[in-house]
Structures are given as structure tokens and as C-alpha cells.
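### Sample
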Amino acid sequence: MSLNVRRHVAGIGRYIGDLMGDRHYQYYLEHHRRHHPDDPPMSEREYWRTRHAAQDRSPQGRCC
């Protein structure tokens, strides 16, 4: 497989991962470091629990 094809496949993989939410916790940590540097961030488990609870309270843009 050529390098160019590998880059496109990797880009598609990242795009799909972003759509599926694979990097949401990383985005949260980056945001938290920038805007709340003195507060400890939630653990990944706490983050997902809080995120899912918020979606259950106010479902938006979900297919199911």
C-alpha cells in the first residue's frame, strides 16, 4: 500500500473515530487544562458517566 493511500485510510479512521466519540475525553482534558488549570479533571469513568447522564436527560441528535 502506498504512503498516500495509508494517509487517506488513517484520515478516514480518525474521522470515523471522532464521529463515534473516541476522542471526546481527550478533548475534555485539553479544554479543562486550558480553562480550569487549578481544578482536577474528572476521571475518564466519571466523564463518561456524566456525559451519558446528560444525554439521557436531554437527548439530541441521536438515532436511537
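The first helix runs from residue 3 to 20. This sample (YbdD/YjiX family protein) is used throughout the tutorial notebook.
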